[in-house]
Amino acid sequence: MEKFDVIIVGAGLAGLAAAWTLAGEGVEAVVLERGDYPGAKNVSGGRLYLNPVRDLFPGLWDGAPLERAIVREGATLMARNRSFTFHYTGSELRADRPQSYSVLRSKFDRWFAERVEERGGMILAKTLVTDLVRENGRVCGVVAGGDELRADAIIACDGVLSLIPEKAGLRPPGRPHDYAVGIKEVIRLDPAVINDRFGVGDGEGAAHLYAGDITKGLFGGGFLYTNADSVSLGLVVSIEDLAKEEAAGDAPSLFEAFKARPEIAPLVRGGQTVEYGAHVIPEGGYRSLARLVGDGILAAGDSAGFALNLGFTVRGMEYALASGHYAAKAVIEARKAGRYDAAALASYQASLEDSFVLHDFKTFKDAQRVLANPHLFGHYPELIGNLMRDLYAVPAGPKSPVFTTLRKHLPLSELWTILLDAKEVTKI
């Protein structure tokens, strides 16, 4: 029976980060990945906020396959027949160390895996873990391909529909309320065309989020990120809402309608689809996080629920990287003590509490509830769209005063509703 120091289940960003950290300390770590190669089955919106994790991985980022530094932010509220858009850019976004980049996971994860292997980490692709091995109540191995593999500690990084923490008793079975489904298409375009259409220069990129009629009133939204020679266009919608509101249609139909919108179609015109995928996304926030540590086992990345949707930003990759790193550090500390029970691994929870990871999740613990307000996906896009329509309209006869137009769309009852909703928004 083969025995390792540490077995990591899943070669996503959390698993690779853990392996990279362990290998750097001379700890024998093997990563078991069920895909054909690291990144083969990972689907992500495609934006990595580097600032929070840059210093956790010294020397890693030189030569990393980052697509474009995001220097232009945007958001659009979409009504049925019109939309309202704002853009933001600033000198800080063009700093020498940009805060975020677009990435393509199939490319980035393979590159990261190669760096892990250069450090001495071992990655076994096409290896499905189906169960855990226990001894005296402590997790001490996994079952993969019918074989038992033993280790001092297991780090579960097996993704959003993670079965390993569930089998270890770290989390209950998933609830539809805590998940969304995302569909993404990567569309190849000439880099010069991308620069012109999105108002960026060579190496510079844009990120844009969309909300409103594109999800037919359901919790969710769209996104677009520019890569070096492609754009990532996608749509995310609540699984629970999709199941309840069949009239809204299925996720692929919503995505095709989004892609055909007059605001979107010109941005991808002439492009060639080179990748199409769908994936489940954790959206439950702080209240749906798994218990992070058990006897002989830790959970990191999507497996623990580390993804955060704030409406104006969607984050997950940096949480995966950091949680994988801190899980590895906890194992290294436990190794010094010579024991791997939950108490010995508890420094993982403490490290996350001290880091940006759990600080962010606690700060935005009400985000999912606040953003689930149906007014945000139906009423307000239509309200703002209609207000803009009348403000910009030039009729054949006299035009109404601006104040009259505002009062038409914003009576006292409407202002009261806005005030109540705004009060909720102050909680995030």
Question: What's the short story on this structure?
Answer:
This protein has 428 residues and is α+β, with helices and mostly antiparallel strands.
Describe what you observe in this structure:
The chain is α+β, with helices and mostly antiparallel strands and 428 residues long. 32% of the residues lie in helices and 27% in strands. The chain contains 14 helices and 19 strands. The chain has helices spanning 13-24, 105-118, 164-167, 191-198, 239-244, 251-260, 265-268, 317-337, 347-354, 356-363, 367-371, 379-392, 402-409, 412-425, and strands spanning 2-9, 29-32, 47-49, 68-78, 83-88, 100-102, 122-124, 129-135, 138-144, 147-156, 179-188, 204-212, 220-226, 230-238, 272-282, 293-294, 297-299, 308-309, 314-315. The strands form three sheets. Strands 3, 4, 5, 6, 11, 12, 13, 14 and 15 form a nine-stranded mixed sheet that branches. Strands 1, 2, 7, 8, 9, 10, 16 and 17 form an eight-stranded mixed sheet that branches. A two-stranded antiparallel ribbon has the order 18-19. α12 (379-392) packs antiparallel against α13 (402-409). The model has no long low-confidence stretch (mean pLDDT 93).
